[in-house]
Amino acid sequence: MTAAGVITLIGSKLLALVPLRIIAAVSAPLAWLGWTFAKSRRRITLTNLRLCFPEKTDAEREAIARAHFRAYMQAALEHGFLWNASGERIRGYVTLHDEDQWKRFRDVDVAKGETPRPVIWLCPHFIGLDASAIRISVDTSGCSLYSEQSNPDIDAMMLAGRTRFSNSKIIARTEGVKPILRAMKSGLPFYYLPDMDFGARDSVFVPFFGVQAATITGVSRLAKLTGAAVVPVIATQRERGAGYDVRFYPAWENFPSGDDVDDARRVNAFIEARVRENIAQYLWTHRRFKTRPEGEASLY
Predict the structure, then answer these.
(1) What is the mean pLDDT of residues 116-130?
(2) Residue 264 pLDDT
(3) Helix or strand (DSSP H, E) at 248
(4) Three-state secondary-structure class, residue 299
(5) Do residues 153 and 2 lie in contact, with contact meaning Cβ atoms separated by under 8 Å?
(6) Phi, psi at residue 149, to the nearest 5°?
(7) Higher model confidence: residue 2 or residue 84?
(8) CA distance 54 to 273
(9) Would you list the domain boundaries of the chain?
(10) pLDDT of 172
(11) Cis ω before 256 (30° cut-off from 0)
(12) Strand partners, 205
């Protein structure tokens, strides 16, 4: 194992022993360090907030950005717990709500000729998305995509931590869509993160908070190919290390519509509505508007 792998493994195991209320408490000073020294991420965050909330003052946007850094730091430190704790402890820390929104498509009466319907869990990039995924995996197998880490030891540790409870499959993004289709065909719901900027390929430009954003059309294309129900999932971090609430929303009706652009607009509009409910917990450190329509200058 590489030195970086050893350090990460030891750090993960040690963090798993730290009481979660302590992790929440130390997140504030560590976030201050991140705010002070991670100048690039701070700039990206403030740029995103300025683009999405021009009606707010500079002071208001900075307060949101600082709150985001603290919530993000806490979520990052909690990975030691999430990758190592027992299923019972994770159940106590992360609460699932309204699971029937997706289970009704799977819990069918086969004797009556009913067929389970594939499910896409649509999970935007709120800071609790890993807590949500691991909590779901305690009880249910699923599949998802991930970006491979450059260090193979860290990559293996992340995969082990995310799949240790069930027969879940984590598929490298570079493998393409075929492994996803096979996994969904085998009966695994797909945990899909729809709101990253992966460039112009397989994307359309639709508004996100009024700004044209390269938005992948994979949600509607996968739903069309598999006949899956699209069930949004939002994870919310509670205050002071009290855990997370994960809520399943009603499956979207008339989706896909047959128009990938309209479907992408619907995805972004839903995410906007959830972000407005809890602005600081969205992933503002990502360059969401990196790819620009032809002829437009960079926003960063």
Answers:
(1) 96
(2) 97
(3) strand 244-248
(4) coil
(5) yes
(6) -85, 150
(7) 84
(8) 16
(9) 3-281
(10) 87
(11) yes
(12) 214
